[in-house]
Amino acid sequence: MSDLSGRTTIVVGASRGLGHGIATAFAEAGAPVVAVSRTATVFPEPANGAGGIQAETADAGDPTVVADLIDRHQPQTVVLVAGATPHMRPLQQQTWETFSANWESDVRISFHWLREALLTPLRPGSRVVVFSSGAALAGSPLSGGYAGAKATQRFITAYAQDEADRAGLDISFTTVLPRITPLTGLGQAAARAYAARDNRSEEEYVQQLGPLLSPEQAGAAVIELVQADAATVAPGYLLTGAGLKKLG
């Protein structure tokens, strides 16, 4: 698994933030990368390795799109990072539409990709990594249904692993829960909102977060997971600037 040059990797949500860092890292490690996003994105040529990035502008929550992308590219690695930016307001200032946005986006995308990975199925030895959030563990009172949606992503990824094991598919599914980081657009908006809620400056709030997670570090962490022996990969990991930590 150390050689990624022949393993097509689909990164869903690759236009920005952690997804962009992950797509770039896989290409630089030599993998052929299919970068899926709603908006057209230009990626630089990888500085190292033989990999390249093919951009696919598509709705990753459309089940027909999911089936088409898997059929055409036959990936051996799928990384799901896409999701909606939550409406940063307390509960009473949410509408049902803003509250449920991450259920209709993040959970929907995960459901369709996990389902298709099992139905197709992906080739034996394939890996699927689903990005949830540290909010699934700690909650997120300023982001409506975000924390619950992220917890559900973790649940259904575990369900997918159970179904793959029952069918003898030899596919590895795992969830990564990144901690809030102001080094992405989503994390920056969240840090600003929580700092204001706590009557602190944004700098003070960020300082207490500890080592900050960058998109480049996220890319290195996912490569580490994909290259590891499948038997050693845990069902879930917390991801911070200090690296991956197995969840019990």
UniProtKB/TrEMBL annotation:
Alphabetized GO MF terms: oxidoreductase activity
Gene3D superfamilies: NAD(P)-binding Rossmann-like Domain
The protein's name in its UniProt record: NAD(P)-dependent dehydrogenase (Short-subunit alcohol dehydrogenase family)
Family: Belongs to the short-chain dehydrogenases/reductases (SDR) family.
Keywords, ordered alphabetically: Oxidoreductase
Source domain of life: Bacteria
Domain named Ketoreductase: residues: 7-186
Source organism of this protein record: Kitasatospora gansuensis
Keyword Oxidoreductase in annotation: yes
InterPro entries per UniProt: KR_dom (IPR057326), NAD(P)-bd_dom_sf (IPR036291), SDR_fam (IPR002347)
